[in-house]
Amino acid sequence: MRELLIIDGYNVLHFSPGYRSLLDEDLESARVRLVEDVANFAGIEGVDAIVVFDASNRKGARRSSVDVLGVRVLFTGEGETADSAIERLAHEARGDRRVRVATSDYAQQRAVFAKGVLRMSARELVDRIQEEAREAAEHSSSGPRRVFLEDRLEEEIRNKLRRYTAK
User: Fold this and answer.
1) Domain residues of the chain, as ranges?
2) CATH hierarchy code of domain 4-166
3) Segment 26-61, tens digit of pLDDT
């Protein structure tokens, strides 16, 4: 079973200058950018990902979960912190597979690490996301390579086609 990466969304957004500048302009855009980046990262790394956003202080907020680009995005409900949701998710999943939590909240790291869950700082996650994006850009910067059908056929079939078209 694939590793599960659980991310403290607002913690990562507030940690990274790139996300933080976007966060200062528009909260929704910052969340969308993070989820898109996590989706790309998770696809490349071959992990499942959950991004948890804390809505505990929003009066009347209900827990909600939606799948976006293969990433589960979870908003906590009123009175439920992201920390408690992350601990619950990590605890539920750790028996079935390897679980990693990305946060720079020291108390959160200690709580999940004590339960056998791997930890990753927000800095490490952002660095790895940026590294994967750079590698993908370098790979695609070489430009599209033309692939001809002839190159994909077996030699025997190519020879038969040449004989057929030469007639």
Assistant:
1) 4-166
2) 3.40.50
3) 999 999 999 999 999 999 999 999 999 998 677 877
